[in-house]
Amino acid sequence: MAKRGPYGKGIERREQILEAALRTIAERGFLATSVAELAEAVGLSQGGLLHYFGTKEELFVAVLRKRDEADMVALRAPDPAAYIAVIRRNAQVPGLIELFTHMQAAAADPRHPAHAYMKERYRRGTAAFSQSLRDMREAGALPAHIDADAAATTFFALSDGLQSRWLIDPSLDMAAHLELVWRNLIGA
Amino acid sequence: MAKRGPYGKGIERREQILEAALRTIAERGFLATSVAELAEAVGLSQGGLLHYFGTKEELFVAVLRKRDEADMVALRAPDPAAYIAVIRRNAQVPGLIELFTHMQAAAADPRHPAHAYMKERYRRGTAAFSQSLRDMREAGALPAHIDADAAATTFFALSDGLQSRWLIDPSLDMAAHLELVWRNLIGA
DNA sequence: GTCTATATCTGGATAGAC
DNA sequence: GTCTATCCAGATATAGAC
What we know:
2 copies of one chain form a homodimer.
Chain A: H1 8-28, H2 35-42, H3 46-53, H4 56-73, H5 81-90, H6 94-106, H7 113-138, H8 148-168, H9 174-185
The first copy, chain A, binds a DNA duplex through residues 10, 13, 34-36, 44-52, 54-56.
């Protein structure tokens, strides 16, 4: 279980904290979540918690990174349905989308920790999905004239935009709109 | 100049304040803008300013409403190029996009003043653009099988998503991606 | 590594005079 | 309508003991 070697225990504890934070934010939402709140949820004092992450913002970014671990692999699937499924699953945890939206807004400031994270996420996510699109094209599942990079960027930005809106108006069917765009793209 | 009748002067003053706030946020960005900051910019004390809007959040929402006055008409143009031009123009004032993004995040809370504003904006914006699409279809500029409502929602969400991302990574060409989607939609 | 306690700070809201 | 002055709440960050 516990990793061997130096820092093993510290890293493990960090993971535990992130998982607890993930749960707490998912349950109570982003707005209701202060550092003190999180500390209590993980069974630590505020000082103890901040020992691991330095600042609140760093902590929140780490939470987002953790969530991405699962989401990002879906972008390399040989079918956008996998990513659409992720979006659909995310709709079960509005608290995390809320967190994401707030961090995205804060990331406009280049000095904010979320800034580097978001840029990296865009780069990585678009690259992965773009590669998947090229694979599909080779497999004959995508018209030859489609620009994979542009389509990937668009699809990614659209899913972000839909999520922000869905948070405010949950009657929006995100998955349906993504599927529509996809079908339109492949000319079906 | 001054409106006649009761409340005329108050409404006028309100407009002046909003215009000054619009300029200030455009210049200094959202993050650097506190109520005290805005008050100074319009030549009022903090108390004097809050007399007109009650709270900071209400003030910010009023600023967004004011900006929308200009933007929304473009959605009724007989060509999405008009709206794309608005997006392109907005890229000149990142401070206002920053404001929008933060308000969009805050609007997830139903009690926040931005919540009602955003819902209304989505409704109105999508309805307007959807109507434009139907007009285009009648004019033969849009394939018959396109669902106007869904396309409008998609286009709107995409432009929001692109703006959020652009704020973090200004190398993104928002207009180019919107044009690409549009061309793909009409099958060109 | 973790806790307690505290330093500070920022900023928004409010009361009441003019 | 507008100003001055004050209040207050809420958080984070830090210092230093254990």
